[in-house]
Amino acid sequence: MEYDATFFAFVGLVIFLALVAYLKVPGMMAKSLDERAENIREELAEAKRLREEAQALLADYQKKSKEAEAEAAAIVAVAQREAAALAADAKIKTEEFVARRNAISEQKIKQAETDAVNAVRAAAVDLATAAAQTVLAKQSDAELQARLFQAGISDVKTRLN
């Protein structure tokens, strides 16, 4: 019987399959595939865990961001209230200052008026005294002058004592 190439190919295939079965290649392949599937499962679980951690961190940072925004808004509101209070206080102090300055100016004006009136009165008294002196000098004689002089001296003495 003559063996052709098909027979040898068949024998080679049977030997190969026997050798593969003897060396437990399908078991090793299944084991390798199982290990790879387990590694993939572990990597997926790790990725899922990392994703959950990332989402938790994101939620935490978003919460902190909102809190920071609220705190910043509160700080801005407080600053605006303080600025308004300072502006109102400055306005009140300015008005009080202007009122005090007006009062001082009015007092100075009244004092100047009083001084002017007193100066006019003093000038009028001096003028009246000078006029009376000239009138008395023209109308009085030596005897009247001596009596007036004596009366003035006695008046001064009574006032000094």
From TrEMBL:
GO terms for molecular function: proton-transporting ATP synthase activity, rotational mechanism; proton-transporting ATPase activity, rotational mechanism. Keywords: ATP synthesis, Cell membrane, CF(0), Coiled coil, Hydrogen ion transport, Ion transport, Membrane, Transmembrane, Transmembrane helix, Transport. It is a single-pass membrane protein. It comes from the Bacteria. Residues 30-71 form a coiled coil. InterPro entries: ATP_synth_b/b'su_bac/chlpt, ATP_synthase_B_chain. It is found in: Cell inner membrane; Cell membrane. GO terms for cellular component: plasma membrane; proton-transporting ATP synthase complex. The chain crosses the membrane at residues 6-23. F-type ATPases have 2 components, F(1) - the catalytic core - and F(0) - the membrane proton channel. F(1) has five subunits: alpha(3), beta(3), gamma(1), delta(1), epsilon(1). F(0) has three main subunits: a(1), b(2) and c(10-14). The alpha and beta chains form an alternating ring which encloses part of the gamma chain. F(1) is attached to F(0) by a central stalk formed by the gamma and epsilon chains, while a peripheral stalk is formed by the delta and b chains. Belongs to the ATPase B chain family. F(1)F(0) ATP synthase produces ATP from ADP in the presence of a proton or sodium gradient. F-type ATPases consist of two structural domains, F(1) containing the extramembraneous catalytic core and F(0) containing the membrane proton channel, linked together by a central stalk and a peripheral stalk. During catalysis, ATP synthesis in the catalytic domain of F(1) is coupled via a rotary mechanism of the central stalk subunits to proton translocation. Component of the F(0) channel, it forms part of the peripheral stalk, linking F(1) to F(0). The b'-subunit is a diverged and duplicated form of b found in plants and photosynthetic bacteria. NCBIfam families: PRK09173.1. This is ATP synthase subunit b. The gene is atpF.
